[in-house]
Structure formats: C-alpha cells, structure tokens
C-alpha cells in the first residue's frame, strides 16, 4: 500500500509540474511559414522575440477562458496535493481521499474545458502555414489523462 501511495504521489507531482510548464511556456502551436518558425502559447507569440499574443476574429474571450481554466487546473491540482498529504495523516481508513479525488476531478474538468476551447478556436486557422501542435498542448492532454487516473485512484483508495 505504501508503494502505491508513493507512486500516486510521484505521478501527482509530475502532473503539477507538467501543468505549470504547459501553462507558462509559449509552444502550444508552432507555425512554419516563409517568415520563419513562430510559436504561440496562451500568453505570447514568439518568433525571434516574444510579443503580446494578437487575437483576431473575436477570439479574445476564448483565449481568456483557456487561460483561466488552465490556471484553475493548476490551483486545484496543488490543493489536491496538499489535501492528499493532510488526509493521509489525519483521517482514518475508509474516510480518506474523498476530498482529494473530488478536487482532482474538478482539476480534470478544468483541463478538459481549457484544452477543448483551445482546440476548437485556435488550431488550424492559418491556411498558408504549416502549423502543428507544440509540446505544451501535448503536455496539457497528458495532464488531462493523468489527473483523471489519479482522481479515480484516490476514490478507489479510500476503501483501503
């Protein structure tokens, strides 16, 4: 049981770190065109220098929503990590990890909403470029999977 809890703890920490990286770094989309390689994230558009991300076509509310949901997912993931440690040492068997699992499910939902909005509104919009998803976008989807698996494991572990 101790090995299982340690494994879940390590995966949870890895998820928090990957959420930080995917939200902060500016490589959600990479565009290759005649002007060079350009990467864009949630905050900046980077070519040789980074500038404020220009938003066209009324997508500013969508970008703000993606930014908000990704920040909320980080907050909920960190809160769930703290709650895991607190519940591990304070609650008796059978009552542990309800709150932690519920908070991780909220984190999972925030990641789902944020990345889904980004996918629907910001991918493949420039026809004359060769754009592909960057590593931050892929990390966000990996965090989506990990947070769901972790939340289910927390809810299953409450019985042991």
Automatic annotation (TrEMBL):
Q: How does this protein lie in the membrane?
A: Multi-pass membrane protein
Q: Name one Pfam family in it.
A: PMP22_Claudin
InterPro entries assigned to the protein according to its UniProt record, in alphabetical order: PMP-22/EMP/MP20-like (IPR050579), PMP22/EMP/MP20/Claudin (IPR004031), PMP22_EMP_MP20 (IPR004032)
Cellular component, GO, one term: plasma membrane
Q: Write out the entry's keywords from A to Z.
A: Glycoprotein, Membrane, Transmembrane, Transmembrane helix
Protein location? Membrane
The portions of this protein that span the membrane are 7-29, 68-90, 97-118, 138-157
- This protein's source sits in the domain of life called Eukaryota
Task: Give the UniProt family note.
Answer: Belongs to the PMP-22/EMP/MP20 family.
Q: What is this protein called?
A: Epithelial membrane protein 1
The organism of origin for this protein: Herpetotheres cachinnans (Laughing falcon)
């Amino acid at each position: 049981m101790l090995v299982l809890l340690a494994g879940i703890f390590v995966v949870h920490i890895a998820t928090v770190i990957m959420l930080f990286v995917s939200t902060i770094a500016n490589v959600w989309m990479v565009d290759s065109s005649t002007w060079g390689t350009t990467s864009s994230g949630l905050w900046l558009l980077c070519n040789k220098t980074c500038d404020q991300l220009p938003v066209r076509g009324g997508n500013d509310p969508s970008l703000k929503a993606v930014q908000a949901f990704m920040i909320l997912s980080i907050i909920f993931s960190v809160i769930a990590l703290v709650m895991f440690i607190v519940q591990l040492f304070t609650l008796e068997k059978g009552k542990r990890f309800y709150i932690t699992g519920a908070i991780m499910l909220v984190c999972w939902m925030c990641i789902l909403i944020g990345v889904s909005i980004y996918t629907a509104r910001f991918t493949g919009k420039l026809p004359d470029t060769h754009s592909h998803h960057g590593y931050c976008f892929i990390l966000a989807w990996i965090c989506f999977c990990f947070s769901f698996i972790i939340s289910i494991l927390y809810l299953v572990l409450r019985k042991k």
